[in-house]
Amino acid sequence: MSGHGHGHDRDHANTVKPMVDEITDFEVLEIALRELCIEKGLFTAEQHRLMTEYGEQIGPAPAARLVARAWVDPEFKKVVLTDALTASKEVGVDWLDPTGFGTPSDFYAFKVLENTPKVHNVIVCALCSCYPRPILGNSPEWYRTPNYRRRIVRWPRPVLAEFGLQLPEDVEVRVADSNQKHRYMVMPMRPDGTEGWTEDQLTEIVTRDSLIGVALPKPGVTTNVITASIPAIRPIVK
């Protein structure tokens, strides 16, 4: 009977497959932490569901509006650069919504980094995938990969070149590393050829990638699809 039982187990293992092919360490940690927080009463399962639904439906549109308004309104731009949380409310984003106590770690500190003719900013989370989700939406998949996270802090120019962004040598590249308490977003420079444009017209050309810092806004370019790319110069091999 023992041999028969083992044979049955082998047959069962060969025919039944898991619901997903793989679960990452981060996913295991998220599940464990979420269930512990609910058990301890830090938030309810309903609040978590509400936050998840909120996170899934937002995108980069509020952030694009924030930048476009700052381009046309110098006084608003001052608020964006000194008190980004207050400025966010002007484009419909309250970082304390929708749960009433803030999204997990996201609202603690938020800063908008201004690009200039001599300084170009790019954001990353070298440790994991911290990202200003309430105003920029969910992060793109490449933002969370080890190749981007580890390399952008060491070789920013070659990595930006892989995105098709070639910067002059006299432009300083600054990498802002997000963490549990701080979130960053880039305010790209207003491109030439947009003189006289309305706020709505400008909003359309502020793409997600330009808000991360791996692209520049251009008149007529309203897509976030990266078309110009080259193989990694210094790839990270697991």
What labels describe this entry?
Nitrile Hydratase, Chain A; 2 domains; 10% strand; mainly alpha; hydrolase; two-stranded parallel ribbon; 238 residues; disordered N terminus; single chain; Thiocyanate hydrolase gamma subunit; 11 helices; CN_Hdrase_a/SCN_Hdrase_g_sf; transition metal ion binding
Task: Please describe what this structure looks like.
It is built from eleven helices and four strands. It is globular, with a radius of gyration of 22 Å. It has two domains: 25-56, no CATH class; 59-212, Nitrile hydratase alpha /Thiocyanate hydrolase gamma (Nitrile Hydratase, Chain A), CATH 3.90.330.10. It has helices at residues 2-15, 25-40, 45-57, 61-72, 74-82, 84-89, 133-136, 146-151, 156-162, 199-205, 208-212; strands at residues 109-114, 119-124, 172-177, 182-187. It is 42% helix and 10% strand. The protein is mainly alpha-helical. The strands form two sheets. A two-stranded parallel sheet has the order 1-4. It starts with a helix and ends in a 26-residue tail after the last helix. Belongs to the nitrile hydratase subunit alpha family. One of its GO terms (molecular function) is hydrolase activity. It comes from Mycolicibacterium moriokaense.
In angstroms, what separates the terminal alpha carbons?
45 Å
Order of helices and strands: HHHHHHEEHHHEEHH
Give me the Rg, rounded. 22 Å
Arithmetic mean of pLDDT:
82
Strand proportion? 5-15%
Spatially, the strands of the biggest sheet line up as: 1-4
The figure for the number of domains is 2
Give the second-level CATH assignment, the architecture of the largest domain: Alpha-Beta Complex
Shape: globular
> Tally of extended strands?
4
How would a textbook summarize the main sheet?
A: 2 strands, parallel
Low-confidence stretches: 1-20
- If helices are DSSP runs of H or I spanning 4 or more residues, what is the number of helices? 11
Fourth-level CATH superfamily of the largest domain: Nitrile hydratase alpha /Thiocyanate hydrolase gamma
Which fold name corresponds to the CATH topology of the largest domain?
A: Nitrile Hydratase, Chain A
Helix content: 40-55%
Which CATH C-level class of the largest domain is it? Alpha Beta
